[in-house]
Amino acid sequence: MNLNHLNTRNREIFRRIVENYLETGDPIGSKFLSEQGKINVSSATVRNVMADLESAGLIVAPHTSAGRIPTDLGLRLFVDGMMEMGNLSTGERASIEGKCNSTGTLIDDVLENATRTLSGLSHCASVVMVPKSNLAIRHIEFVPYSAEQALVVLVTEDGSIENRLINLPLGLPSHALVSASNYLNARLQGRTIDEAQIIVQKELAAHQAELDALTARVVEGGLAVWTGEATAQHSLMVSGQGNLLNNIEAEADLVRIQHLFDDLENKKELLNLLSLAQKGSGVKMFIGAENNLFSLSGSSLVVAPYMKGSGNVVGVIGVIGPTRLNYARIIPMVDYTAEVVSRNL
In this predicted model, what pLDDT tens digit does every residue of 130-173 receive, in sequence order? Predict the structure, then answer.
């Protein structure tokens, strides 16, 4: 389904249903639209058009004898093809730039300030995915933990230290952990985990690594524990959850917000979703049931990647809230915040 299938009158009625819903949050009825005076058709005609839009899956009745609200599909088509994008005010731009200024500030503090600014301006919650393993590595070491496990200690260039447990192959000689540490440190220093993994995999595949089979398995396990999952590579900052409790008018709203809080608590799933948005450039949106994570809460996520250096995407930042977001205002807000963060990094 796309908007090209709608004639001019149907498009206009659909647009007004969505715009009024985004502004008020209320179901929109045919009588209301016809009495607005902006559509020169009768209430009966509006009802017929609304029936067509409902059959097309663009609007739905939330309960019996109610008006209509846009579906997730309807919101997606409206945002992508009909919405007029707003502009940030000079004050909003100055606020974002001032709070994201990184002079003499740690990167984590810059990102935390950015999320607080976004949540304050959007009156929603804001999220940022913070890179961890994208930092260059200073040192890695395998420390014996038990007969079956070893602790992998990773030290990054900023001095951060993280640990992971890995299982050891049976029959591993005592010197293997030292050999694995020496081998990786010779190739890791100054590189990220992802970069080192590519080099090591090529060497192992070509049998160029001077390692016995069991030590090679330790090396592979030591790298694998840091890669492959968004939760291993990134952490999550969330700010402004309290904003989501504003404007709750019905018990159904409270239930929806409770589901959204559950989604925010399930950081692994949210990080996996954000990692999808990290690929490519520009603002990305996940509206309602388009993603399984929001199937119960009826929420939307508007995010944009931020970069460090020449086009190196390291994370994403954005806004999460009900599907009734002010997309025209929030999309440029998220886009500009990501741009300012990238510039400062």
Answer: 765 556 788 888 888 888 888 888 887 767 677 788 888 888 88
**107 and 240 fall within a common domain:** yes
**Looking at the 3D structure of the chain, how many domains does it have?**
3
Find out whether 272 and 316 touch, Cβ atoms under 8 Å.
Answer: no
pLDDT attached to residue 332 = 95
Higher pLDDT, 250 or 6: 6
Q: What is the mean pLDDT of residues 278-295?
A: 83
Rg (CA), the chain: 25
Kindly give, in sequence order, each residue whose CB lies less than 8 Å from that of residue 309, ignoring residues fewer than 6 positions away.
Answer: none
| Residues 6 or more apart in contact with residue 304 via CB below 8 angstroms | 277, 282, 283, 284, 316, 317, 318, 334, 335, 337, 338
Higher pLDDT, 106 or 204: 204
d(CA 44, CA 21): 20
Type and span of the H or E element at 156: strand 149-156
Higher-confidence residue of 116 and 277: namely 116
Q: Do 205 and 273 reside in the same domain of the chain?
A: no
Q: Are residue 12 and residue 60 in the same domain, yes or no?
A: yes
Assess whether 109 and 150 both reside in one domain: no
Which CATH number do you get for residue 199?
3.30.390.60
Check: CB of residue 259 under 8 Å from CB of residue 265: no
Give the ranges where 28-160 is alpha helix by DSSP (H).
30-35, 43-55, 72-81, 90-99, 107-122
Q: Which structural domain range is residue 209 located in?
A: 137-226
- Give the pLDDT confidence score for residue 59 in this predicted structure: 93
State the burial class of residue 332 (Cβ atoms within 10 Å of its Cβ: 0-12, 13-18, 19+): middle
Is the same domain home to 50 and 128? no
Dump pLDDT digits (tens) for 289-302. Answer: 888 888 777 889 99
One-letter amino acid for residue 275 of the chain: S
Is there a single domain that holds both residue 76 and residue 145? no
**Same domain? 170 vs 71:** no
